[in-house]
Every structure is written in C-alpha cells, then in structure tokens.
Design brief:
By secondary structure, the chain is of the alpha+beta class. It is built from eight helices and seven strands; from the N terminus they run βαααββαααβαβαββ. The longest helix has 19 residues. The protein is globular. The protein binds coenzyme A. The site of coenzyme A has 19 residues, from strand 4, helix 7 and helix 8.
Length: 200
Amino acid sequence: MSDPVVRPFQPGDIDACYEICLRTGDHGADATALHTDPRLIGEVWVGPYLKRWPEHAFVVADERTVGGYVVGTPDTVEHEQWLQKEWLPPLRERYPIDAFPPGTADADCVQLLHHPYETDDRLSLGWPAHFHIDLLPEMQRRGYGRALMNAFLASLRSAGVATVHVGVSSANPGGIAFYRRLGFQDLHGETIWGRTTDPV
Ligand SMILES: CC(C)(COP(=O)(O)OP(=O)(O)OC[C@H]1O[C@@H](n2cnc3c(N)ncnc32)[C@H](O)[C@@H]1OP(=O)(O)O)[C@@H](O)C(=O)NCCC(=O)NCCS
C-alpha cells in the first residue's frame, strides 16, 4: 500500500468527499449520528464547489480511498450568484423548508439551502477566494492539511487571485489552531480568517 498523496479532484471522488463532509461536519467532529439524510450536509458544503470549481478542488488519497479534501472558489461573489441561479433551486424542490423537524441538523442544512450565507461585500472584495478543508481523523496531524492548502493556494495564484478567507466555528479549536499556525490573520473574532495565497 503506497502512502497517501495530494492530487487533483476526480469525478469518482464525489461520494467520498460527501462522506468526509459528514464525518467532520459537527464543528470538525463526526456528524453522522446527527443526520438522518447522510448526503444533505455535503450538498451544502462540498457539492457546489466540486461542480462549479473542480479545478480548485484537491484530495489526499491512496489508491484505495480518499481521506481528505479542500474545495473552494476564487471568486466568492460569482460563487454565491451561481448558487442562487443553478445549484440551489433543484435542492429547494427536493428539500422543502419543513422537510425535517425544527432544531435538527438536517433542518439547519435545509435552512441554508433556502437562506444561504451572503458574504459581506467588504470581505469578498478584500479577500475574494474562500474554501473548506476536511480530513478524516486518521489523516489529521500528518501534514496533509498543509499540503492540501498549498495545492489550493497554488491554484488560486494561477488564477490571479492574491487573497483568501475562511470561516471557522468558534466550537472548533483545532481548526482555529490550524489557520493560526498557517499564518492566517484573524478578521472577525476568530471566526473569519484571511491570508495571502503565498505558500504556507
Ligand atoms: C483542521 C485540519 C484541516 C488540519 O489539517 P491537518 O492535516 O490535521 O494539519 P497539518 O498536520 O497539516 O498541520 C499543519 C500545522 O497546523 C498545526 N495544527 C493542525 N491541527 C492542529 C490542532 N488541532 N491543534 C494545534 N495545532 C494544529 C500543526 O501542528 C501544524 O503545525 P507545524 O507544521 O508547525 O507542525 C484537520 O485537522 C481537519 O480536517 N480537522 C477536522 C475538520 C475541520 O475542523 N476542518 C476545518 C473546518 S474550518
């Protein structure tokens, strides 16, 4: 068995990426027990980036399995416009606003399908790219997060993008420590971080 490597996303990785999203979806911890629909969380946080921006998606994988991904967009404004026009309408049909009992993790995801985040103009102008990164527990703290970030940042530089931001839950101290260690600057109370696209 060869060591895992960071490589560009391939269409055959989609299901594994959705599964990783679920297994890291509770502020970095496993959210499997919180959801009755195992794919819904991926439709919010991973699927749209794989569909719209596959050239900026990277995975860490061996020949058998995918153990982590980074997905993102070079242009948050364009991404949010595309979400409203293309990605969200069919999902809103499939998941009406009352599809799940209020207060459940699935209901929270459905809420985001019907009322997605709208990034503040100052943030998307100053730090136009954004991303999400998740690795399974057995892949964490082995340097793969840094390697995924370097692949993603290089793809942004190739697209002429100089700065990037990321959101992280205040209930995820590991994520915050990672971004701090990689030289991100705190833009908003440790929940929004930004940096240049120079290598980390
Ligand atoms: C957060 C995450 C992406 C980091 O990736 P990783 O592969 O574990 O991190 P790396 O091994 O590449 O570490 C890079 C640096 O960050 C530091 N770091 C990473 N995780 C850390 C943690 N939990 N606490 C403190 N430092 C941490 C490492 O010490 C390392 O520093 P060094 O290079 O000086 O030694 C990964 O742990 C993960 O997917 N966690 C669960 C999902 C999640 O929280 N995603 C982020 C949501 S915003």
